[in-house]
């Protein structure tokens, strides 16, 4: 190293003594520049070239591995996306089936409720009709009794004045027969 620095000092000192411009061509400087460059290449080849190439090779391998992993991850992602789409389509189909079943069930339930309400309405109408008929029969029976009482009272008054007991019984029986028919 000492030799190189002395040579460099000598080359630079020669140029300074002559007083040339920096753009002048000096064969000594060219020679020493070439020698220095070759020496630098040898030193770099001996000490730095292998580590640089190893580093580049490792970097290249790392990049290849990363690209392969990325491709694999992309293929896996595409596979998962396809599976998810299939699962989503299946879930959508099942949801449509459930909705259709719910609609069918709702229609059946609606029909059942309508039938039950119609049956209840018919029963209520039937019960009300029977109650009305019973009340009419009861009212008619009471009315008959009242009419019979009124008729008997009226007949009694009339008969007390005009008829004897035997005629009165005959008249009442006739009146009651007329009411039955």
What does this structure look like?
The chain has 181 residues and is mainly α. It has one domain (35-180). Helix content is 93%, strand content 0%. It has three helices and no strands. Helix 2 runs antiparallel to helix 3 (165-180). It is rod-shaped, with a radius of gyration of 65 Å. The N and C termini lie far apart (156 Å).
What would the principal axes of the Cα set say about the shape? Answer: rod-shaped
Q: Which spans of ≥5 residues are poorly predicted at pLDDT below 50?
A: none
Proportion of beta-strand residues: under 5%
Number of domains: 1
Computed structural class? mainly alpha
- Count of helical regions: 3
Helical amount: over 70%
Helix and strand element order? HHH
First-last Cα distance: 156 Å
Note the topology.
Layout: H1 2-18, H2 27-162, H3 165-180
Helix pairs in contact: 1-2, 2-3
Features:
rod-shaped, 181 residues, 3 helices, single chain
